[in-house]
From TrEMBL:
Pfam families: YjdM, Zn_Ribbon_YjdM. Residues 46-113 form the Protein YjdM C-terminal domain. Belongs to the YjdM family. Signal peptide: none annotated. It comes from the Bacteria. Residues 3-32 form the Protein YjdM N-terminal domain. This is Alkylphosphonate utilization protein. It comes from Pseudomonas rhizosphaerae.
């Protein structure tokens, strides 16, 4: 029987421990195992492919050729994307790419400049 507390966000009982963090597999919420909640505990923390924290307005570089769904366009490796906006969801970066337009990217395919 698990003695870990339920997820504070979705109340799931399937939480697990990862180092000093507790993680909910259902909603992906992470919190401190020590029980100390910070004031910004619900703040959106998005990291790039090498673990650097991203913020609104950052400039990133694409690290992999990405096909644009619904067209024959490709975002090439090394494309610099300026002034990103972070959002919730699977594709967690909103941006405009020169020559392509507005689109969403996954943070795992970019590196902070």
């Amino acid at each position: 029987m698990s003695t870990l507390p339920p997820c504070p966000k979705c109340q799931s009982e399937y939480t697990y421990e990862d180092g000093t963090q507790l993680i909910c597999p259902e909603c992906s919420h992470e919190w401190s195992a020590t029980g100390e909640d910070t004031a910004d505990g619900d703040a959106l923390v998005i990291k790039d492919s090498v673990g650097n924290a991203l913020a609104d307005g950052d400039t990133v570089t694409v690290i992999k050729d990405l096909k644009v769904k619904g067209s024959s366009l490709v975002v090439k490796v090394g494309t610099k994307v300026k002034n990103i906006r972070l959002c919730d969801g699977d594709h967690d970066i909103d941006c405009k790419i020169d020559g392509i337009g507005a689109m969403k990217l996954k943070s795992e395919f970019v590196r902070k400049v």
